[in-house]
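Async update (no meeting this week)

Hi team, since we skipped the sync, here's where things stand on the single-chain job. The sequence we agreed to prioritize is pasted below, unchanged from the tracker. I ran it this morning and attached the output directly underneath so nobody has to dig for it. Comments welcome in thread, and please keep replies under the output.
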Amino acid sequence: MEIGVINGPNLDRLGKREPEVYGTQTLADLEKLIEKHAKAAGAKTRSSSPTTKARSSTRSRSGPTRA
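Output:
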């Protein structure tokens, strides 16, 4: 079995940006932890991160824009 892990934008900043809020674990630390648990379950992992920043929108497709 293979488990795909899709990381969101800015996770490469984990452990660096506001560690008092987000903690000190880095993305590499989390990937190693996921690999360890997957291996114990007899699975492999594949990780990917987006190469561009995601854009978020609070607008509804059918409704008016809110300020």
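Quick observations from my side:
The mean pLDDT is 82.
The first strand starts at residue 2 and ends at 6.
Reply here if anything looks off.
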